[in-house]
Specification:
- This is DJ-1/PfpI family protein.
- The chain has 13 helices and ten strands.
- By secondary structure, it is α/β, with parallel strands linked by helices.
- Strands 2-1-5-6-10-9 form a six-stranded mixed sheet, sandwiched between helices. The chain has a two-stranded antiparallel ribbon with strand order 3-4. A two-stranded parallel sheet has the order 7-8.
Amino acid sequence: MTHVVLVLTPGVHLLDLAGPAQVFSTAAELGRAYRLSYVGDQERVDSAQGLPLSARTEWPPDLGPDDLLVVPGWRCPRRTPGPPFTDQTLARIAAHHAAGGTVASVCSGAQALGEAGLLDGRRCTTHHELQDSLAHRFPRAKVVRDVLFTTDDRVVTSAGIASGIDLSLHLLAARHGPAHAAQVARNMVVYARRNGDEPQASAVLRYRSHLNDTVHRIQDLIDTRFAEPLTLDQLAATADVSPRTLTRLFTRATGGLTPLRYQQTLRLERAEHLIAHGATTETAAHEVGFTDPRMLRRLRSRTAS
């Protein structure tokens, strides 16, 4: 069971909170072991939009490295000297990361991560209107501009408001694979999913901005089995259409990719992720289904050029 703890403060933006909460609760409904808790320094938390919320003042006692803390943003952070959290709450956030856990923020929630000492020397982002303030307050942070989210050593930060959904889908893809993240997004009717600056997830997040259910079903299959040999005839039979029809539907929905090119793109991006984490080209090629490492080298060369 993975515990997702959302840390609330007065003035919290509802969508900053609701986006991640919906993603992980949907993942739980689809069979993943997630449990959500809402904590704060006080039991009643008035949102920026006027809706009162309830929070627990006692933190879950059994948080471990697999659990996740999420700090949603709040209204008008620039008018206050710092995040409206107690030192005790900031210390809990820092301690969770020190124990091997992941800490994430949405929008101005990055200010709390900075106050907890988690942004020093790390890449981070926030809402575009708050980036200058974040960089000024935390000069050792590496503020990345114009991206939806960043991840650096289990510190994950996202831009404003709706980007918390993109961040949460990215975390699901990293934990359970792109197919599960795609399933959650489809359940939420979030077809136009957007990628942050992590290229290994971009194909899944970039080529789903359509409403063709036949193509989504084939993408789900390819996402799950991208390392296996999949012929166009097999895919067409799964969709109960002819190979020609499937190719036509797929290229129209994805903006020009054939099913096999889509599979190849998934393989390439997964291989890039493995190589970035220390794998050799030969090992990465084998892991993603290329029988000849030279094919992977050629694809990487084309992408680089």
